[in-house]
Design the sequence.
């Protein structure tokens, strides 16, 4: 049993997807979504303001893409850990996110339980959470 709540900022530009992910996270007793961003600039602002344990970050967003968000937070020595949740199984994106401080990269069609496990794991310092390649349906060319 967890004694502390993992505080999450959720950055996803698709409102319907964001609401679904928020619902999944908030069902868990030990996870709380404390902020939501629909673009990269808002994600950076919310992380700096709210100091969450974890930023659950999409790659393709308006304003700043996820790679630039991670780069700015990493450069600013943010203690917030980053877990990517993307529609794209693209090596360039994966490498860009991991090189800029993300602790893991999952694809949006992962099992909900795996997403929750990754959120908990990354928030507690684990690195290397990766998607299951056989789960990937969308590949960016």
Sequence:
């Amino acid at each position: 049993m967890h004694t502390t709540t993992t505080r999450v900022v959720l950055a996803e530009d698709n409102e319907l997807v964001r609401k679904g992910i928020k619902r999944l996270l908030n069902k868990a007793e030990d996870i709380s979504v404390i902020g939501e961003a629909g673009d990269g600039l808002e994600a950076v602002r919310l992380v700096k303001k709210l100091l969450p344990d974890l930023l659950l970050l999409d790659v393709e967003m308006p304003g700043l893409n996820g790679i630039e968000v991670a780069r700015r937070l990493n450069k600013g020595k943010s203690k917030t850990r980053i877990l990517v949740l993307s529609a794209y199984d693209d090596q360039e994106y994966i490498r860009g996110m991991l090189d800029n401080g993300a602790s893991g990269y999952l694809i949006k069609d992962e099992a909900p339980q795996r997403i929750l496990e990754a959120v908990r794991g990354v928030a507690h310092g684990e690195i290397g959470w990766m998607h299951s390649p056989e789960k990937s349906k969308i590949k960016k060319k």
